[in-house]
Amino acid sequence: MGLFDKLAGWLGLKKKEVNVLCLGLDNSGKTTIINKLKPSNAQTQDIVPTIGFSIEKFKTSSLSFTVFDMSGQGRYRNLWEHYYKEGQAIIFVIDSSDKLRMVVAREELDTLLNHPDIKHRRIPVLFFANKMDLRDAVSSVKVCQLLSLESIKDKPWHICASNALKGEGLQEGVDWLQGQIQATKT
Amino acid sequence: MAATSSSSSAGESTQANSKWLDAHYDPVANLYAFSSCVTLADLHGDGEYKLVVGDLGTSWHDMKLKVYRGTDLLSENALPDMPASVAAFLMEQHEPRTPAVAVASGPFVYVYKNLRPYFKFTLPPMEINPLEKDVWEQAKEDKIDPLSLKEMLEMIREKAEIPLSVRSLRFLALEPPEMGAFVNQYKMQPIKRQTVITCMATLKKNMADEDAISCLVIGMESNEILVLDPEAFTILARMTVPSVPTFLDVMGQFDVEYRMTVACRNGCVYIFRRDSKRPKYSIELSSQPVGLVRVQKNIVAACSDQTLQGYTQKGKKLWTVSLPATPMTMSLMEQKSRGFQAVLVALANMEVHMYQDKSLVTVIRTQDVVTSICYGCYGREDNTLVMTTKGGGLIIKILKRTAVFDRGDASTGVPTAQSIKLNVPKKTKLYVDQTLRERECSVAMYQVFQMELNRIRLQATRTYAQALESSLTPITETLQEPLKMNAVVQGIGPTFKLTLHLQTTSATRPAINLLISFLYDEGLYYMARPFFKAPMLVPGLNYPLETFVECLSDKGISDVIKVFVLREGESAPLLMAHINMPVSEGLAAA
Ligand SMILES: Nc1nc2c(ncn2[C@@H]2O[C@H](COP(=O)(O)OP(=O)(O)OP(=O)(O)O)[C@@H](O)[C@H]2O)c(=O)[nH]1
Ligand SMILES: [Mg+2]
Hints:
CATH class of chain A: Alpha Beta
Strand content of chain A: 15-25%
Radius of gyration of chain A: 16 Å
Largest sheet of chain B: 4 strands, antiparallel
Largest sheet of chain A: 6 strands, mixed
CATH topology of the domain at 483-580 in chain B: Immunoglobulin-like
CATH class of the domain at 483-580 in chain B: Mainly Beta
Bound molecules: guanosine-5'-triphosphate, magnesium ion
Number of helices of chain A: 6
Strand content of chain B: 35-45%
Helix content of chain B: 10-25%
Oligomer: heterodimer
CATH superfamily of chain A: P-loop containing nucleotide triphosphate hydrolases
Low-confidence stretches of chain B: 1-16
Helix content of chain A: 25-40%
């Protein structure tokens, strides 16, 4: 990094770029979460199921995020692994009200964490236990247990309960992620 | 790979390497159902499929229509009677395209829309016996007392072609003191005779789309099948079956072409086509069916004699597999993303077997005996297996996204050698010509062949007889002294070495007291020992006996030397051989 870039970084003119993968089953609320993190004038109103993936950008106080919002539908899930190499952080979204598919989320998470491109990297993983507002949603502690997150020992991870429709809990998660990235990069 | 995967997938489905994820198990879900009463449908049109169960309950008054969303019960509707079948179907074109739920029970089909009762269809009443009607008419006017009513009804029951109504049958079962009250209670109401529904299926009306409107197809105790209009509930078609239908499978579209496969209580399966009032094909199963599934164009039935049988759509039998336990129920399994279809059969030994054709693909062990299976999209997961158990439990398993089933994964299939294609060469012109000739002159060829064959036989018999007469065989005929001999001549002359190989072919008894004698032209040959005693022949050993023959002539001629094997004290030889001596070349050259 050149001196000028560093200067710009200190002055907050140019922010550090980070690639984030947003993963999780279909209908878990990935696109809704990313949408909510964008500045309010850039947000869309109608969110439809993602086809393939889409690339979104948003900024925090010190970082510029490029998010790969992957589709969670079964037939597109095999696309995920092609982006593992580029990803510097992972956001994994879980629909806390979909108890039936917790096993599927867990299976996909296990596959992800055991992938050669991910397995040996200390890459931060942020979990959103989304749709907390729904009546039959389980708590984030329960989600933690159902996905056996305690067994993740070699990566920093964090779980937040969230309501993507209102934006609740999202900031907490992104702050944690920003802290992790800065801790490893500087 | 074949060896390892076959052993791992066959049984250890509870392990981590299983192809199924255990999504949910509730042993006390209180769901008692058969496969016909379980279905999956996107009831709210939101892409999240619900589970609809016609629950039989545990007593006579807690039958319910239950709807599950994910792992939770969403709604319950009490049912007035036992459900025979539950189906979800689209009734009308307009939006929102949410399917209605039909529950067949007794002589009615209850239709629910948005999980609220919407319509009740009643089967058309059946013809009433005129005599029975008359009798009740008289009872109504108090012309006859209950006892004579009973007598007359009993007479009708004996003789009549049209059976009695339920009311009369109930009346006949009463004790005399209860009769009067019964007659008074019912005599004013007209008598009705109704049949009940035994099975139900859906049939697309005129479009093949997944979300096209469908007709209900109803099988009845009266050996009939009805097709109902989805909107007006009028009867579009009526078919007669030779027995009571118990399982129905319908494919195609009502207005275009359809094929109805009906398994009946008499252990037969009948196949109807559009426009056929009577069955077009029929299959006689080896015993009563407990389930019927169509896999592509083939029909697979599980039977109570522990077999699974496959047939073509024209009723030709393809295969039979014997099952390790009694089948309870069965269902189609379709992994659409991979175009894979198989049949799931629940067995009484708490296993669910998955067959592709006749090869066992995988075995799922369950915690209880499974009584109903439903495979399809549930929630948002395409490949979900929903099962209810004998004890009222609910088991939900999800097929892993990466799961691939190989044909014959779990052994006991067709041996691979059977499917290897042999490299059979093409038919040559010669072959074709020969075949044509054979076809044209078959009679002549046969005659020639027979004649030659007889000649050969005659020739063989003659030679044999001759050999017998002169004991000219190298093997003895007598059973007491089985002997074998052959002679070898060595050398170029004038001295030849003559070796006789003598052996007894008896397995146990040695041959003793044998003599060897040579007969020859004494002017031509000289032998040092023309007569000698053979040693004892031990079974299994070959005895080479050597003698020398000197040729006396130098004219280049040769003759035959005869060898006899004799028994001491008997003049007829046991064995005789002619040795054609070679020409003595040594002397000729000298
Ligand atoms: N009640 C509630 N609904 C939510 C929440 N987050 C998202 N949703 C709804 O969930 C549905 C799916 O959201 P999406 O953002 O499209 O889900 P996705 O994960 O991007 O799905 P795919 O693109 O198909 O992988 C939408 O109808 C959202 O409105 C939440 O926190 N609470
Ligand atoms: Mg999306």
